[in-house]
Amino acid sequence: MKVNLIGTVIYREWRTRVVKRSFLIGTLLTPILSVGLIIGSVLLTDGVEVNHLVLVEDAPGLITRLDAASGQYVPRCPGCFPERDNLEYRFVREAPEDSVWLAQGHTVLVEYDESVLQNAAGYMVYEKSPGVQAKRQIERDLSRAMEHARVMESTELDWSAYQRLKLDLTLFDRESTEEGREEGGGDEVRGLIGFLFSAVLFMVLAVYGGLIMRSVVEEKSNHVVEVLVAAVRPEALLLGKVIGMGCVALTQIIAWSLLSTLTFGIFQSLFDAGWVNGSMAAGTEDIPIDLLTVMAQNEALSVLLDIQWGVMILGTVAFFIGGFLLYGSLYAAVGASVQSEQEGQGMVVAIILPLMFAYMAGGGAMSNPDVPVFTWLGYIPLTAPVIMLVRLAIGVAWWEAVLSWCLLILTARLVLGLAGRIYRNGVLHDGGKSGWKLWVQWMRKDER
Amino acid sequence: MTTALHIDDLRKSFGGQCVLDGVSFEVTPGSIMGLLGPNGAGKSTLIRSIMGIVTPDAGTITLGGKPWTREGVQRIGYLPEERGLYKDMKVGEQAVYFAQLKGMEKKEAVKSLRHWFERLEVEGWWDRKVSDISKGMAQKIQFICTVVQGPELLILDEPLSGFDPINARRIIDVVRSLAAEGTSIMLSTHDMPSVERLCDHVVLLNRGRVVLQGASDQLREEGWNGSQEVVFRGNDLTFTNALGAWAHLDGIEPTPQEGVRKAAIRLREGVAPGSVINALQGQVELQEFIKVRPAMERLFIDAVEKEKSIPESTVS
What is the domain class of B1-75+151-221+294-316 according to CATH? Predict the structure, then answer.
């Protein structure tokens, strides 16, 4: 097989797809639009935020007292109702009729009775819903104020002493290994990350595999194929086509990753600058406004920083190469043995089944990675590319990953050879029935 | 002398059906060989075997005096009957791609292609998409892609299909000049006039076997059945009587010239043309006495019909 000829085929496959307006627009716009939509929605929410004047009817007098100077009811715990752009509180012991407080400019009325401390429930009355975010803020503020009232009523501690004594327990995971204890836990989140990687791989294999099939069918229908197979060995042509399309997929993934990283950076800058603080961090005034710190403080998100991204990316690329060679050559073989894309769909279903099975099993492996069936699926080449990405994210012995990859590559090489025979015989097969029987016949033919 | 292509006892079967049955022939350097045969005769399988697309069951193929190799195939220019171009690629870009697949460097390919585009007057189409060009134009581009690397052997399968008479003439001229420059050419076609105009040699294939082969002139000479065309001024009856036992008269017809007649005769076996001329002279005013050799089409039909009369079971 002449390497430079394969290189020429790879370059054509890559160039004709990548240097194309539709590809460039799709590749550039997808991440920008996605992040743009997120940022846009945040900014839009920021821009259209409605200010609410909340009237709290503290009938039992739990959280308010009468301020002699102003003659107004004021909170016993002023810190429980921090100043906000979108929320302002007024307190009364007895609220007027709805039409009256509404006419006074209030948008929300909160009412409760003495039982609130037992059943932790009250009512929120409004003409137009204030929205989920405002409702949560009101609930959070009133909960703190009532907690304050409870502390004042049932303990001899003052509020600040109570807050100092308050304890939120966090249990950090530690795995007991032969080397001692190691940091552990976060398997669900890691599994989820691995599953997301495998989902991307699944989509890429399915989408670009389909493109390989279409490309072969087109070459048959526009009669280019005979010139090609006369110049290049069909196996080399198939390999070039699969690698070329794989390069297209990698180009798109890399472009999306870089653009997403860039937009993530922009998003973090916006976060740091406080642009999105109002919408995202409001109500948690003690939250540090730095995205990485936020992630580190969040138990689930901290796992993201803890994942061995180098291993994940290396694993993804390695299993992508193996998986793409394996499935890509099968798709090319289908394309070679049919006369139209529609005819190929039936055969594609059979090819994509193991991949779909792996994808669904990946969901199970996410929560139970060490169940023997998933361990075995990680070794079976047809399911390994998807399953091993989940297991890699959660943590797997290096030799298991290497063994799985070697099996995958060996199988891909074998399938590539057989697919090459199908391709050689199939591309010039015009008319008549196609199907698995022909595949078996063609695979038995060892041509020069 | 080293042959450009030598085929020896080539055999190929598909699913028990014999497609090539001991085919042997050769193409000499700088010659144009016509590969003829009815549909299903095995021409495409033979060509695909030479190109390495199909592996023969038995027999040998020698290219330029050396046993068949993939590298040897790289020196063949091949224009298949079923041919096409990528519709979404630009013409020039595509031609460069095909030239590179034939082992040419990009720079060298561009230079050679520019020359050929100019020669076939398609230089203005370099940057156009294939979907924007006409069928005839696409045919020219395909022809250029076949000859661009300066192949030692050129295999052209129905090269003139899709061309108007002017462009067909241009392609014929190019093929002739390539042969004159030393390129060996194998031409597979059903277009008999172009075979007569172009081919030095012909190989006629039927049911996977070579049923006729040799130099075109020689084959036509061998196929001559004594036909002569006689142009004379005189009486038809006198002419017929003078012809006597020397020849069969197939027919007499008038010519545009007043009193001048044209007769088609067949000399009887062993009769020399001079004897007939002597017999006619003095009886009629003899103007022309032309030997009529059979057209290639006639030879083709006769050979195929003759084969048809042989039962299938005895042909193998």
Answer: alpha beta
